[in-house]
Write a structure and sequence with these properties.
The protein is α+β, with helices and mostly antiparallel strands. The chain is built from five helices and four strands, in the order H-H-H-E-E-H-H-E-E. It is elongated.
């Protein structure tokens, strides 16, 4: 077993040269466009995050960005910006997005998913604090995006 197989990666089993166009019966046509690299190795978000270098880089970025002190801000008529400490979302964004996660955990998760999957979604739950009472992170692979 080679190094690629130990990392969960497997070279493309084909007689084609890397960079040559896929044939009509190739599985390429049934996969999302981003899953094969020019070398022919299949790369997905789940495979990439298992690589220690990718995981370490994503972890550092997610922790650093997630730890930033977030505030709601409002734009002023003169073009300036000021903090909006009484905004209804201030507590949710800055301290407690939901009953299970701290703001740090929520934002670290969101940044990690953005870096690996290219997007992060959260379910908006109305409740006692208004139209947005809680934000629950959703796994990107469980969300279907529909254009209207």
């Amino acid at each position: 077993m080679g190094a690629l197989e130990r990392m969960g990666l497997r070279p493309r089993a084909t007689d084609e040269k890397p960079g040559s166009p896929p044939g009509p019966d190739d599985d390429y046509w049934y996969e999302p466009f981003h899953v094969r690299s020019p070398s022919g190795v299949r790369v997905t978000a789940d495979i990439a995050i298992k690589a220690s270098a990718v995981f370490a880089c994503v972890k550092i970025l997610a922790e650093a960005i997630g730890a930033m002190d977030l505030h709601m801000r409002r734009y002023l008529a003169n073009g300036g910006v000021e903090d909006a400490p009484n905004h209804p979302l201030e507590e949710i964004i800055r301290y407690q997005p939901n009953q299970r996660h701290t703001a740090l955990e929520f934002w670290e998760t969101s940044i990690l998913r953005t870096l690996i999957w290219g997007r992060a979604e959260a379910e908006i739950v109305p409740g006692a604090r208004g139209a947005v009472d809680q934000l629950w992170p959703l796994h990107p692979e469980l969300v279907r995006i529909e254009e209207m």
